[in-house]
From TrEMBL:
It comes from the Bacteria. InterPro entries: HtpX_protease, Peptidase_M48. Keywords: Cell membrane, Hydrolase, Membrane, Metal-binding, Metalloprotease, Protease, Signal, Transmembrane, Transmembrane helix, Zinc. The chain crosses the membrane at residues 30-49, 132-151, 163-183, 342-363, 375-392, 510-529. Residues 60-311 form the Peptidase M48 domain. It comes from Frankia alni (strain DSM 45986 / CECT 9034 / ACN14a). One of its GO terms (molecular function) is metal ion binding. Its cofactor is Zn(2+). PANTHER family: PROTEASE HTPX, PROTEASE HTPX HOMOLOG. This is Protease putative membrane protein. One of its GO terms (biological process) is proteolysis.
Amino acid sequence: MLALACWLVAVLSPVPFAWAVTGGVAVVAVQYLVAPWVIAWLVPATELVRTADGYRSDEPVAAIVARQCRAGGLPLVRLGIVEDGEPNAFTFGRSRRDSRVWISRGLLDRLDEREVEAVVAHELGHVAHRDVAVMTAASLIPAVLYFATAGGRAADRPGGNDLNRLLAFAAYLAAQLALLGFARAREFGADHASCRATGDGDALCSALVRIAYGIDEVGRERAARIAALRADDENRQARRLARRAARIRSTGALGIAGPGGLPAAGLLGPGLPPERIAAAMRWENTSPWARWGELFATHPLVVHRIAALERSGLPGAPTRWGAVRAAAAARPGERTAARGRFLVELPLHLGGWACLVAALTVAQHHLDVGGPRTVAVLVAAAGVLLVVRAALRSPLGAPEPVDEAASLLERLDAGPVGAVPVSLRGRIVGRGGYVASPDFVLADDSGIVPIVYLQPFPGARTFFGLTGADAFVDQEVLVTGWFLRAPGPYVELRSITGASGHTARSWQFVARYALSLAVLLVGAVLLALNL
């Protein structure tokens, strides 16, 4: 976002090169200084009190973090527990001494002790590598590269060199993609740091699967029981139950894989059926949309992270996931079908907006390529493409009832454009992880799935997050919407109904169709006037 803001300033104002770079550095510095306060406000957590040798807390994760900090030669980080059911953990802060690790209750309740330690070691790997500071500084590069390529002020004045502007924008996009690639490399580095610190790459792999795919066939019942005990202030029993679950998982992880096939049930951890994991990974191996989405993501695909750990040669590198990845390979015909869908959906995904940009460019510069008729054709083409895209993105057919949320991961026909209309039942166990989030986390007996709440009106998401979302938390609900992968799995909400009958709806799909039809209508009128 910072680089995009710098680019907009560059385009919209004739600022000298040196001034723009100086301003960009100032913005980065301010962001670096205030970001920890902003994040701590957006994602409130109960921060554990630090002592000379650890934390004043009986949370098992406190001892894990203290032990890993000592082993890594790091200062004791500030540790916060986020009371949210979404499994998540992240690091922020200005320096090693100011680093904070926020861990959600959902992660602590759904992961066993080995997996929690692997996640903690991953986050402390970011601290050891100073990744927050490195990525903050690197975020300035796209804007600087834009100015360097554009030639500073001259290229951005009216009548400036359009070719320079085009090259500068291409350089900006390339730098942004490189920056995202650099962020993914830092994630690989943190994965390797976790494997070195714990000697247990298998635990990190199972944690990644639980967090990224939401697969956990026993997690909901265990998490619900722990939460109920905590609500009754029976913390000792809750901790005993959590430790018992951890021991059960550790025992299950000692199983032996059958020769030449998938690992035996329980080898990857209770609640992680190998067949379902392989089905979830198959989309990442099969669909070109997975690679496309990874290009624009800060985190690599799970299947790539597991493969990188297996190839690392580190002590404790994972040994139980090769058969799963082999089973996740694309079957005959699946890759061809996925490529065909991608070749159809990619032009629909980008083509409508590209035609509108081209129409605006022709209209603005009065290029001698047919004039008004060219604009009319481009707008009409944009309307057609946008209508078809809306029909794929928000199909209006009857939703398909889904018995298990995790079964959605088997759908190879889902993507960022092609959506599957679904209805599913479960309990809302969390929200999107920050104080004003309008999004939900739905859990059933098979696992969890994010539910994304969108609205076309400015501020509507935040308003719902502040005023209406809490009414559905810890409630059994019926959700209708569209299942997508981009590349992570999620359901875009159409409606959510609680046990009491209270309902919230999203009108994003209506706006999507209305905008598309409006563009098509304008294009048809322009064509009629210019034929």
